[in-house]
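batch job 7 of whatever, protein = C40 family peptidase
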Amino acid sequence: MNLALVKTLVEPVRREPAHTSEMIDQVLGGMILSIVSPPKTSPAISGLEGADWIQAQGIHAQWIHAQCPNGTIGYLRSWMCEPVDSSSPWCAQPGVMVRDRWLSSVPEEEGEAPVCLGMGTRCLGSVSSMARSAVETPWGCRVKLPSIGLLPAAKPFLSGFYGGAGRLERKEDLSKEALFALLEGALERSRLLLQAPYLWGGVSPGGFDCSGLVNLCVGMEGLRLPRDSGDQCRWFCDRGWGNAPDATLDAAPGLAFFGEALDKIDHVGFLDGDGGMIHASGNVHRTLLNPEPDEEGRRLLIRCRWVVSG
């Protein structure tokens, strides 16, 4: 399998191999990507595999065609990724993940500039019992980060960037208590991201779209979801989780999906249990849905099609 490590803080994924093409997703530093063979392979790189294939592909095309852990397939600049195989520490070791919205390193020497990492960035190392943890960033810097801002990451090679429960196929595979805890944790992460700007295709603290916010926050809790809101809703429906909207809009934690119909979902947000919803629209903010919805809440309520709650 051809694999690549994302070695920048955040990198756009394009629909086509051009800077002018639509950004359909982002990948965060430390993610492991699966390289998809290009539709037309240069004769100079045919027959190559692994790191040799990726390096040659970068030379000839400057773009790689890759599948992200959430299933998105698109194009990234080749020099923003590093070829790896299953024996690489980035594939064999879980490492750590940034849990805070932004986390700055602690300079070791006078005049040293801090390194700032965003939520979801994965580094090599472990969470220390001391105040600081020594880690290696995806781009090769060795820094010390506040331990309180880190959490253990899932093993990326086996389950993608986001861990544990990504292969759930049936409602019975996840108890109601476990689903409640997962959604509650994701809701708390979304609170840390309030006022983050809106960005089409965004999935980092630098900017989110609605499904990107859900993708990151739920993913940080160990459940890997599809990228887009419609596919996320379908994922829950197919496994028997959730129901048509009713009084459960007051339940927390939860996810609410919106659209012209159940098969035309185009928006998603986190229900907070106090009659509100945290979502990315304009920016990441809270909209009041119950008992007296604000203007935005009234527009959303008539389009609510599916609710997933613990």
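notes: The radius of gyration is 20 Å.
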